[in-house]
Amino acid sequence: MSLKITTKLVEESNISSFDPENIVFGRVFTDHMFSCDFRNNQWQDFRIEPFGKIPLSPTLSALHYGQAIFEGMKAVKNDDGVITLFRPLENLARLNRSAERMCMPQLPEEIFMQALQKLLILDKEWIPAKRGSSLYIRPFMFAIDDFLGVKPSENYCFMIYACPVSSYYSQPLKVRIEEKYTRASKGGVGAAKCAGNYAAAMYPTKLAQKDGFDQVLWTDGEQHQYLEETGTSNVFVITEDTIYTPQLNDSLLAGITRDSIIKLLRSQGKNVIEKQISVKELIQWHEKGELREMFVSGTAATVTNIEMFSYMDKKYPVNATGNLLSTEIVNAFNDMKTLITPDKFDWITILQESKMVHQ
Ligand code: COI
């Protein structure tokens, strides 16, 4: 089905405000945004308009009761000007899993892909061609009922905007393993990419930042014994012969970068284990000198090393220089995305003027 998207273009592009040599994460947005509404049980009113403010009622239910979910994905441009997306249908699948958990409507593939295609073609000049830079794309959905009572909204808005970005973190991270606060717990919404999870993380993260850390490394909500994720990304622990990452559960976000790293490393014959990783075990690896590297992974964070973790006020330095597995992974993904190496995993979608083409 071809979507009828009403398009209103900017009178004058804002692209001159964007310096590809000096990109600050999440501050400059492309010229256009996509929106559509879910009303009477149907997605409708597909439109692309100049990026800008949206009218909101003070009673808008997302503002009060938090039915708001989002995704993060990236478009990359190679030296020949070819634009690719990395596993976009995985983002849609996760958006729809989040939507189900939050009592929100499913978004059909044709709406997601055609909206992305049209928006990205319109704003393609904004996609930086420099290796390591990309266009960050933020699809999101929120409840728009004007109603004070607590119940799932009947009406929703789905939107996409985008901004050129380079790295989210400019250096290796110092993380504090959380002993008191909880981001998400069993049976909760930790596995959904919903706004509230990020709000819940802000206060403990602020406390950690006040003490000189970049991020909280969350632990399970019941015992604070098992590693979960950081506020923006999944986590990997590398010992002499094995790569570990916390196994998925309902308090942990199923990162697409996480999944891609696991598949990439396993395809290279490496031993990757998804399991519950206890803080005790992590400290033992450190004490025995077996801990080689730790990194976080996410769309925005890409793959960023942890140079120190702290637990019960004790600091544990971790190697974050030299020949790092994280660097190999980042290079492998960049090569795939820019079509330097073949896409043997079937992860790359090429953006064309009239359609998306699976590689
Ligand atoms: C992403 O990596 O896309 C995220 O959503 C993390 C974000 C909060 C910056």
Description:
With 359 residues, the protein is of the alpha+beta class. The chain has 2 domains: 181 residues, D-amino Acid Aminotransferase, Chain A, domain 1 (2-Layer Sandwich); 149 residues, D-amino Acid Aminotransferase, subunit A, domain 2 (D-amino Acid Aminotransferase, Chain A, domain 2). It is built from 7 helices and 19 strands. Strands 1, 2, 3, 4, 5, 6, 7, 8, 18 and 19 form a 10-stranded mixed beta sheet that branches. The structure holds 2-OXO-4-methylpentanoic acid. The site of 2-OXO-4-methylpentanoic acid has 7 residues, from loops.
Summarize the structure.
By secondary structure, the protein is of the alpha+beta class. Helix content is 23%, strand content 30%. It has helices spanning 61-65, 88-101, 109-122, 195-210, 256-267, 279-287, 325-337, and strands at residues 6-7, 32-39, 42-50, 68-70, 73-77, 83-86, 134-143, 156-165, 173-177, 215-219, 227-230, 234-239, 243-246, 272-275, 291-298, 302-311, 314-317, 348-351, 356-358.
